[in-house]
Amino acid sequence: MCYSASCSLLFFVFLHSKSILNKRMKRYSVLCFCLLLAIARGGAQLKRSEAFHSKYELAEVVVLSRHNIRSPLSGNGSALSRITPHEWFPWSSAPSELSLRGGVLETMMGQYFRKWLVGEGLIAEHEQASRDLRFYANSMQRTIATAQYFSSGMLPVANVPVEHHCAIGTMDPVFNPQFTFVSEAFRRQAGREIAQMGGEQGMAGLGARMRDNYKVLEQMLDLRKSVACREGDTCAFRLDDTEVHIEMGKEPYMRGALRLANQASDALILQYYEETDARKAAFGHKLKQRDWELIAEVKDWYGDVLFTAPCVAVNVAHPLLVCMNDELSVPHRRFTFLCGHDSNIASVLAALEAEEYVLPQSIEKKTPIGSKLVIEKWRDAQGREYAALNLVYQSTDQLRRLQMMDLENAPAIFPIRLKGLTANADGLYSLTDLQQRFAKAITAYSYLPKD
User: Fold this and answer.
1) Taking the complete model, does pTM exceed 0.85, yes or no?
2) DSSP 8-state code for residue 223
3) Which of 71, 276, 309, 440 is placed for a possible disulfide with 91 were both Cys, Cβ 3.0 to 4.6 Å?
4) Dmax of the chain from CA atoms?
5) pLDDT averaged over the chain?
6) Superfamily for the 50-73+96-178+314-447 domain
7) Domain spanning 184-307: which CATH class is it, in words?
8) Is 67 a catalytic residue?
9) Which one is catalytic: 172, 291, 304, 342?
10) What CA–CA distance (Å, rounded) separates 173 from 445?
């Protein structure tokens, strides 16, 4: 439903564009129209209006965060060094660990949250650590460090202890997107749901969807000049060899060209955030914004295939869904920060049946580096409780330029809508409705198909 003449104009442009664009561009015209419509409506804001505050008081915030910028998961001598003749960025951290830039950026994000939460009266200006505030991270260096940097920005005089439950470098079961139940019937259902993502071609369509993305990626890497090509391993990413495997006690994993392309996409996007010279980040190529988006889409699509099929999401996100739902019910809890990975945000949103979305101001359209799923609990004068869900993330410019953030120069904020739930006139869901949606996703685990 449109609220202004500008919306009507945007809709006209969208309809006209459908008649003149090719099939692939039509899909992007839809996305662009949705983005422009969101802008015309004014978008979401964590900083609420006076009229809003006359009706509601912020009671609690639960944050599920992805870690900030890390080095690639594999180091020198890996497949990454074989698929390009170029030298990768000299990282300031060991493979998979939070970079120095990532720490600075996460501190900035914590400072923004401090400004917001102090303004809302949820925390004091010089807040001290207390049981009302929880910081809990997966036991990997990059997640613990992200939580620590965020807490330093948000609570600079509190010296907050970050909770983690396993040896450093070990995946905590709460954050580990692994299968905790597998049967042959479950494998078949998961296989069908994953294949449906490939359209009429099924599993073969999963790679074919990346045809244009692969071309940009191959050219940027100069793949044909690489060691991998010279030795006959690969000179181009295949479109028809994607395989997804499901095993008890393991994350969903993939074989085929999409897996290798994802590794390259991940490393290139991280390099683009770290390297201030965009041309150097692109190995000497001059890329447009759309080229970077096509490269990042490989990584986004890889994550969608592995973690967002409905029965897969319910399975791998189950422990985290329970944890988040519990946090929304802990007496006197004011703030919770849970730090994990992009797979955590993707699977939780899929399990909660979030509507499709495409994020503006970021080359990563689903779960940008350092992004946060923020659940706000609001209470009205009659004691009724409501909830809002937003993805909060630093834009690509903020990441690359280390832009300071405050209430006037905020991070990007995008509202998340859940299928089948109706928000009130202020954009809030009933908290009961949200908790019932959590309960539905949690209960669905018990009904996964058994042999």
Assistant:
1) yes
2) G
3) 71
4) 71
5) 90
6) Phosphoglycerate mutase-like (3.40.50.1240)
7) alpha beta
8) yes
9) 342
10) 16
